[in-house]
Specification:
The protein has 188 residues and is α+β, with helices and mostly antiparallel strands. It has 5 helices and 5 strands; from the N terminus they run H-E-E-H-E-E-H-E-H-H.
Length: 188
C-alpha cells in the first residue's frame, strides 16, 4: 500500500525467530475504550520498532506502525482466537453497522506522531451457511473482526463510510500526512 502512494520503505521484522516472545501485548486493559486501546497498541509497536533499530544498530530512519480493530456496541473485536470465535464475531456483525479504527504512528527519534482513521461498515444479513463456508475457505485468524474487506467478505458489505484503505489496515490519506510531517517525500 505504501508503494501506491510512492513511498520507499524497508521492512523491519520484529521477531527474528519463531520462539521469541512477542514485542507488544495486545490484550485490552480493563475498561479501556476502543480509541485509547488502538492508540496504545500502535504507540507500543512504534516504540518496539525504535528499540529494534537501536538494538540492531540499523541506520536511523522513521518508523511507521499501524494497527486496526473492529468495534461494535463499544466492544473491541480484535483477531479471533479460533474459528468458533470468528463465527461468533461474524454473527454479531451480520446485518449491522460497525466501526473500523486504524491508528497510525510515525516515530522520528523520540517523538511519535499519531493519527486515527474511523470508518463505518454495514454488513448485510449473513446466513450461518455463508459464515461456515467463508470460514472454511478463508484464513481469518489474523484479521480484526474476522474479515478482510479486500477479500471475499466484500460480498457481505452493503456500504462503507470512511477510508477503504483504513479498513484494509493502512489509511493512506492519514499515513501520507504523517510521513510528510516527518519529512518523508511521497509520490516519488
Amino acid at each position: 500500500m505504501l508503494r501506491q502512494i510512492g513511498v520507499k520503505f524497508n521492512l523491519l521484522m520484529m521477531r527474528e525467530t519463531l520462539g521469541r516472545t512477542i514485542d507488544v501485548d495486545e490484550q485490552p486493559l480493563a475498561n479501556e475504550v476502543p480509541a485509547d486501546y488502538i492508540y496504545r497498541i500502535t504507540r507500543a509497536k512504534a516504540d518496539a520498532g525504535w528499540k529494534r533499530i537501536l538494538q540492531r544498530r540499523l541506520p536511523v530512519q522513521p518508523v511507521l506502525a499501524a494497527d486496526t480493530i473492529v468495534t461494535i456496541d463499544g466492544c473491541i473485536l480484535g483477531k479471533p482466537r479460533d474459528n468458533a470465535h470468528a463465527e461468533e464475531m461474524l454473527k454479531i456483525l451480520s446485518g449491522r453497522s460497525h466501526q473500523v479504527l486504524t491508528a497510525i504512528g510515525v516515530g522520528v527519534r523520540d517523538t511519535i506522531q499519531m493519527r486515527l482513521s474511523v470508518s463505518t461498515v454495514r454488513f448485510r444479513e449473513i446466513s450461518e451457511r455463508e459464515i461456515r463456508h467463508y470460514l472454511a475457505n478463508n484464513n481469518v485468524l489474523d484479521k480484526a473482526g474476522a474479515y478482510a474487506i479486500q477479500g471475499v467478505a466484500a460480498a457481505f458489505i452493503v456500504e462503507i463510510s470512511g477510508s477503504y484503505s483504513g479498513i484494509m489496515g493502512l489509511p493512506l490519506y492519514e499515513t501520507a500526512q504523517l510521513l510528510e510531517e516527518a519529512g518523508i517525500t511521497i509520490f516519488q
